[in-house]
Design the sequence.
């Protein structure tokens, strides 16, 4: 979910693309509007999935809208994304994803084959992730009133109460290590290279993947994972910046340790993007106890979705409330939320 | 939910507005695409909400996209609708609605005040219905790529296992009576009269309302309600037609018994609409045992949302698989699913 808690100044009379960026403007919208009016203790926790206590069980419940443009890109499509994204939101809560809903807003005139391919892709990814799409809705709007196809998925997972701390992150302590399950920026650069206006064929594949199996392996290996979050819109930078701010912790990343493929780095340089802020759709950031970091790194690397996993930083006592990057050339710079929108409609 | 089961012929290479009508084309899309590829026993049940068994509890889970145009109309707005619609889908399953998610797709440039008023309306209706909006998402698309604002809500309710038969309707028998909690067509005609292109000020108010309290009163009064469904897109006609087809039952409605206000009847005649097919957003159709029908009618009439409730028909042994209307002038005609789209973007 993307109703998260921060305190940002400012207000705009009209909605900007940046309000959908996952950055500062999105936070403003959430604070000034959604949290203010929907105000309740579950929402206010600001967890990735809502954690619900239903008599006899504890559930994770989440939703995401997908408006990616184009619908198909190397390594995925809007359908796959709509399943992975929601599966991952549940899995990073420490819950086991079980059921999804799927709601379609379709533009009149859309080629039926396109819709069919998207639906097939959703079905394949749901099977792959071991979840079932159990309810849905379809609306069609007049030609020109939406852009081909938007999908909103919601998901329910079952949560063992002993894992409730994972989405809150309230057991994190200085010295904890930060692990990622592979290279960053692949999804965003794949979508960018697939956009018609770009005459680039960069051959970059989206990393979109359901991470629940990888996460389950890690949770089986350790009962002490402190925190998880998938680094989607806004990238790795947004996850660590939010983590530092919301928990008043110091976060320190080492640039040389963060996996980025040469292709992604090259395209980012060409287009003027910082890979730290580029969207991923198959990357989880874990905060783990120092004494289990190597074991968990190995566990991740043994999984097909974690071969290039790396320890990329740690929680520090310095600069609480801020995330810093130790740069390749020995300097350091603050990692803040994006102010505007870098890549609209990346997911 | 609107993935329901029927068997309809035909196929179109492009998506038509009728694919979003709730009528025959929607059923085709669902059968040929969603049920085919998402195939699983929960989905295949075709209930309004998915009925889920999570260790220790039974849940109802549903989703709906709202694309109503205009965003504000007499008696409601897209925000109120997005809460009522999902609350009602859960309530007609016999479940108690507890939690909602809300996902926003916003057009760049939307006036912030509009969004704020919609959010306030959602918050007010959630409070009124006794549910909490616990998770959400926000996406912004470029100007011209969606029409102001689309909202998808999903909902979770807790279901007592003894009420599971209500959404399946598998205890219905001939002789059962059909009750509705008031007049039909008000929502659709309110939205029509609010559309800019119509220079009508018909002073018709949408019936949009959360029905969970009314339904709870009825369920408290009787343990034998056989079936419930809210009559939204496609109207009363679609509910009874689907009921007849999916259960191979005969349904007989009496036109003179069906409440329609003079204003709605007048506007329908003017515009050439059949009120039976016009959308409602605060109407539930109940199938109840004959010997409890009068008591349940009285229970409904005592509730603020059921003052003009009426017994409008019954389940018959004749014409299984079909719904018939005994007309005002003494004839009878079949009530079928809509073939195309009568009122696009009515919800």
Sequence:
């Amino acid at each position: 979910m993307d109703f998260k808690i921060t305190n940002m100044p400012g207000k705009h009379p009209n909605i900007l693309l940046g309000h959908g960026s996952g950055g500062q403007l999105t936070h403003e919208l959430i604070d000034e509007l959604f949290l203010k009016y929907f105000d309740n203790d579950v929402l206010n926790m600001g967890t990735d999935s809502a954690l619900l206590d239903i008599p006899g069980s504890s559930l994770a419940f989440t939703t995401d809208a997908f408006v990616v443009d184009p619908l198909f890109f190397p390594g995925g499509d809007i359908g796959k994304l709509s399943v992975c994204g929601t599966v991952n939101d549940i899995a990073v809560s420490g819950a086991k994803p079980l059921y999804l809903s799927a709601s379609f807003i379709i533009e009149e005139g859309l080629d039926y084959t396109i819709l069919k391919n998207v639906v097939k892709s959703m079905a394949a990814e749901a099977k792959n992730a071991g979840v079932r799409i159990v309810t849905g809705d379809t609306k069609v709007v007049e030609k020109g009133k939406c852009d081909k196809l938007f999908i909103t998925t919601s998901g329910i997972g079952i949560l063992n109460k002993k894992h409730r701390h994972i989405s809150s992150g309230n057991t994190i302590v200085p010295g904890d290590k930060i692990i990622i399950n592979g290279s960053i920026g692949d999804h965003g650069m794949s979508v960018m290279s697939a956009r018609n206006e770009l005459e680039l064929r960069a051959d970059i594949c989206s990393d979109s993947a359901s991470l629940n199996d990888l996460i389950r392996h890690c949770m089986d290996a350790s009962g002490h994972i402190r925190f998880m979050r998938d680094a989607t819109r806004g990238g790795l930078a947004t996850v660590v910046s939010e983590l530092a701010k919301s928990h008043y912790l110091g976060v320190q990343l080492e640039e040389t340790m963060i996996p980025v493929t040469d292709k992604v780095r090259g395209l980012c340089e060409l287009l003027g993007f910082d890979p730290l802020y580029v969207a991923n759709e198959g990357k989880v950031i874990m905060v783990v106890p120092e004494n289990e970091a190597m074991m968990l790194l190995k566990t991740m690397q043994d999984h097909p979705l974690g071969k290039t996993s790396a320890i990329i930083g740690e929680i520090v006592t310095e600069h609480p409330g801020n995330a810093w990057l130790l740069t390749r050339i020995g300097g350091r710079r603050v990692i803040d939320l994006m102010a505007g929108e870098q890549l609209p409609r990346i997911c």
Observations:
- DSSP finds ten helices and 14 strands in chain B.
- The mean pLDDT of chain B is 90.
- Chain B touches chain A through 85 residues (CB under 8 Å).
